[in-house]
């Protein structure tokens, strides 16, 4: 596809955030929406995710993002004629420590005040909700029936079709080289983006990009503290026990190990909190075997089952496990007019549609009704900020510090 001379909005990155944001912008009536993607649509972590989606969270912001995304996934077929394969399987956040019980009960009470039907299940109730779960060794957990999963590959197809139907121009194998800006009395503003194929004149840019976002930011004169880290997913061989009805999803809070049914077997995923951050796509077999043994302790029927699929991908994360939603900033901390950042903070499938909708809103109108973004901008990482932002406690055990991906 030829490079257009102008655009009303340029979205950088064709993953879940960029793809859905471009569709939302075009569906809102933005005439010329262009996506630039250095590879192929969905080629990164978006097609290699596990597809877990939950509204259960530890902060009001995260709960709102999860609820919005679940509602969107559930209504896709009626609204778009295609969907991401959402299935409401229910999700048990498993407590194994006294701390998990205290925090889980308090979290459930807050979420109920937010309108989420979250229940605390004692060990016996948890075993009834998840019949294949070992009856001992845990203390129950919080449960929400509306949480579920999507099919990541089907999600890529869904937003690809949605972009096509709303007239979005997608330029694959077209890398962002940098931004063009002009200075003004109140700061700089965007005038275009440069690529190896030429320049697109525009006054609005939405910068996404997953674990590559830090590097993309540097090209645009931005410091974006997003890191990349390995995440592994595996699927066991089928077993008759998994065909006995929908299986509730489970998350082992203590180890960051989660699982759900998949193609007659069990899909499970994990990240190693001791691993140094940075790009990694090879399978760490030693850590995988360690988590496989832990899974067998919780789901004994998996002991001895062979693995059908195993993969690893580099996924993004932020130090506080919250998304970044807000304007780009110049070296004096002033907003760069026309530049918006949207990153999911390691929750691309879980919060992707909500982050994409909010990002498109901010890029086009400067505000959004999806969630309160007051504490989600780049300025929260400024050490001079007086009021710290509370991070999201229910997240994969990524490294605490962010070493921005090169």
If you had to describe this structure to a student in words, what would you say it looks like?
The protein is built from eight helices and 19 strands. Strands 5-6-4-14-15-16-13-17 form an eight-stranded mixed beta sheet. A six-stranded mixed beta sheet has the order 8-2-1-12-19-18, with helices on both faces. A three-stranded antiparallel beta sheet has the order 9-10-11, with no helix packed on it. The mean pLDDT is about 95. It is globular, with a radius of gyration of 21 Å. A hairpin with a 2-residue loop joins strand 10 and strand 11. It is α/β, with parallel strands linked by helices and about 400 residues long. Helix 1 packs parallel to helix 5, helix 1 crosses helix 8 and helix 2 crosses helix 8. Helix content is about 25%, strand content about 25%.
Number of helices: 8
- Which residues sit in consecutive blocks of at least 5 with pLDDT less than 50? none
The major sheet is characterized as:
8 strands, mixed
Q: Radius of gyration, Cα only, in angstroms?
A: 21 Å
- The secondary-structure element order is EHEEHEHEHEEHEEEEEHEEEEHEEEH
First-residue to last-residue Cα separation: 29 Å
Number of DSSP strands?
Answer: 19
Structural class: alpha/beta
Shape: globular
Largest sheet, spatial ordering of strands:
5-6-4-14-15-16-13-17
Percent strand: 25-35%
How are the elements arranged and paired?
Blueprint: E1 9-12, H1 16-27, E2 33-36, E3 52-53, H2 60-80, E4 91-94, H3 98-113, E5 118-121, H4 123-129, E6 141-144, E7 148-149, H5 152-165, E8 169-171, E9 178-184, E10 187-195, E11 198-201, E12 205-207, H6 213-219, E13 227-236, E14 249-252, E15 257-262, E16 265-270, H7 285-298, E17 307-317, E18 324-329, E19 335-343, H8 348-365
């Amino acid at each position: 596809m030829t490079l257009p001379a102008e655009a009303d909005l340029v979205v950088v990155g064709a993953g879940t955030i960029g793809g859905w944001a471009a569709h939302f912008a075009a569906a809102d009536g933005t005439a010329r929406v262009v996506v630039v993607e250095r590879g192929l649509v969905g080629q990164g972590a978006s097609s290699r995710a596990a597809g877990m989606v939950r509204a259960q969270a530890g902060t009001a912001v995260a709960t709102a993002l999860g609820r919005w995304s679940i509602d969107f996934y559930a209504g896709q077929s009626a609204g778009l004629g295609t969907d991401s394969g959402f299935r409401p399987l229910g999700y048990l956040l498993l407590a194994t420590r006294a701390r998990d019980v205290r925090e889980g009960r308090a979290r459930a009470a807050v979420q109920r005040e937010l309108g989420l039907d979250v229940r605390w299940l004692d060990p016996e109730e948890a075993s009834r909700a998840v019949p294949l779960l070992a009856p001992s060794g845990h203390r129950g957990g919080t449960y929400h029936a509306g949480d579920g999963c999507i099919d990541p590959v089907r999600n890529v197809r869904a937003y690809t079709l949605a972009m096509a139907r709303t007239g979005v121009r997608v330029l694959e194998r077209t890398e962002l080289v940098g931004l063009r800006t002009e200075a003004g009395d109140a700061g700089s503003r965007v005038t275009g983006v440069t690529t190896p194929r030429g320049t697109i004149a525009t006054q609005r840019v939405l910068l996404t990009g997953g674990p590559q976002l830090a590097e993309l930011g540097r090209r645009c004169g931005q410091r974006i503290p997003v890191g990349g880290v390995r995440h592994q997913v595996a699927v066991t061989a089928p077993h008759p026990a998994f065909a006995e009805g929908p299986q509730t999803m489970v998350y082992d809070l203590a180890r960051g190990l989660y699982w759900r049914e998949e193609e007659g077997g069990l899909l499970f995923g994990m990240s190693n909190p001791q691993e140094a951050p940075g790009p990694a796509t090879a399978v760490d077999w030693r850590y995988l075997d360690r988590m496989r043994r832990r899974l067998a302790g919780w789901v004994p029927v998996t002991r001895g089952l062979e693995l059908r699929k195993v993969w690893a991908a580099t996924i993004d994360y932020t130090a506080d496990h919250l998304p970044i939603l807000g304007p780009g900033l110049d070296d004096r901390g002033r907003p760069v007019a026309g530049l918006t950042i949207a990153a999911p903070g390691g929750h691309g499938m879980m919060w992707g549609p909500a982050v994409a909708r909010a990002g498109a809103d901010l890029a086009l109108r400067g505000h959004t009704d999806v969630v309160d973004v007051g504490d989600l901008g780049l300025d929260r990482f400024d050490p001079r900020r007086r009021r710290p932002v509370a991070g999201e406690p229910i997240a994969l055990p990524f490294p605490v510090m962010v070493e921005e991906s090169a």
